């Protein structure tokens, strides 16, 4: 991986040089990990023409959640606690004779920006913008392999939960159990707070688990994902508890399943982001559920659980091969509940078999 990180940094260095910046100060944690391999919380990466320096508030521990810094990057530890690595990195750039530096203005606070200016007043600061985030959109096969393992872990954890007794247990309890099972199967942690929603809560995007207990006849919606070596996936499924589904539940489930399948089938290189969203949204809209739909049908995943691209009505851009995304349409009926079906897939050329489905837990409407 050392060579991979070096190539990534060189690509960014070339971009900075083309815009007149001698180097870059990368502070967003996911971007630091992408370019340097890892580092303790708070670490920043200083890209220079001669060397790259990872400025750390403390020494790396080697913990999986922090990653492992590339050996080709020089480590610089702050001499005292409480210092700001971004400010220290700017001082290093100034001391090294740099006249300009690109920074991530969207990540740095105003206070940190002022502190950098105070220690290096003659250093010309330019906005790096979303250069690293854009570079991260297309994944290499090693990144996709990590996502594939994260998906396998998530499928295993969810599958085991579905084999246990669910009636009478609370949403909060089930969410905690799912996260424990992720760890048991090798995850470094949960990719995001696990959502378990029952009865009238089901089908709601981003639901926070409560003490509501699972009851016979409920819809049960689960959205969960594993973090494996920094890479995060997502799966969402909806089930019926303890009895045969009611007619309205079957009808609603079939509708969301049809919309999700249409969006999955639209995932081909060159398709516009908005067209993937439209494939699902027009089906749900035609059935009378246009109002109240989520603002997007899916999004990119990787070192963060919500990355570009955004599969949304106004999104600009087109999909490339080797871009992992979620497809997650849902409908929530206030007071009754609803359905969400969510998969993580990788966009592939048709010659390579089309979109690669990473999350394989059944999408049948099971009665548990």
TrEMBL record:
SUPFAM superfamilies named among the record's database cross-references: Creatinase/aminopeptidase, Creatinase/prolidase N-terminal domain
Residue stretches in coiled coil: none
InterPro entries listed in its UniProt record: Creatin/AminoP/Spt16_N (IPR029149), Creatinase/aminopeptidase-like (IPR036005), Creatinase_N (IPR000587), Pept_M24 (IPR000994), Peptidase_M24B (IPR050659)
Top-level taxon in the UniProt lineage: Bacteria
Pfam families cross-referenced by the UniProt entry: Creatinase_N, Peptidase_M24
Domain called Peptidase M24: residue spans: 146-348
Transmembrane segments: none
UniProt domain Creatinase N-terminal: residue ranges: 8-138
Protein name per UniProt: M24 family metallopeptidase
Organism: Streptomyces katsurahamanus
């Amino acid at each position: 991986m050392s060579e991979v990180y070096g190539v990534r940094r060189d690509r960014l260095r070339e971009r900075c040089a083309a815009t007149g910046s001698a180097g870059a100060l990368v502070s967003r944690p996911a971007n630091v990990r992408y370019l340097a391999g890892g580092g303790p919380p708070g670490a920043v990466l200083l890209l220079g023409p001669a060397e790259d320096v990872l400025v750390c508030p403390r020494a790396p521990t080697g913990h999986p959640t922090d990653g492992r810094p590339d050996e080709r990057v020089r480590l610089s530890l702050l001499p005292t606690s409480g210092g700001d690595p971004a400010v220290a990195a700017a001082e290093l750039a100034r001391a090294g004779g740099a006249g300009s530096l690109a920074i991530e203005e969207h990540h740095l606070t105003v206070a940190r920006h002022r502190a950098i200016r105070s220690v290096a007043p003659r250093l010309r600061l330019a906005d790096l913008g979303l250069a690293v985030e854009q570079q991260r959109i297309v994944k290499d096969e090693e990144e996709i392999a990590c996502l594939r393992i994260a998906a396998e872990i998530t499928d295993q954890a969810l599958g085991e939960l579905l084999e246990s007794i669910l009636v009478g247990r609370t949403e909060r309890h089930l969410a905690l159990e799912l996260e424990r099972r992720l760890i048991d199967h090798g995850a470094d942690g949960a990719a995001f707070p696990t959502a378990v929603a029952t009865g009238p809560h089901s089908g709601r995007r981003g639901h926070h688990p409560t003490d509501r207990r699972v009851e016979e006849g409920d819809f049960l919606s689960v959205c969960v994902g594993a973090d494996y070596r920094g890479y995060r996936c997502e799966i969402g499924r909806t089930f019926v508890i303890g009895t045969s589904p009611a007619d309205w539940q079957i009808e609603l489930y079939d509708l969301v399943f049809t919309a999700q399948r249409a969006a999955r089938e639209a995932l081909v290189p060159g398709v516009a982001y908005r067209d993937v969203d439209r494939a699902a949204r027009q089906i749900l809209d035609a059935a009378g559920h246009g109002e109240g739909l989520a603002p997007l049908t899916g999004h990119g995943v990787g070192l963060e659980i919500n990355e570009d691209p955004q599969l949304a009505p106004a999104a600009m851009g087109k999909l490339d091969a080797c871009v992992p995304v979620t497809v997650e349409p849902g409908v929530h009926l206030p007071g009754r509940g609803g359905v969400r079906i969510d998969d993580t897939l990788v966009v592939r050329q048709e010659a390579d078999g089309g979109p690669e489905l990473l999350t394989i837990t059944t999408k049948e409407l099971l009665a548990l």
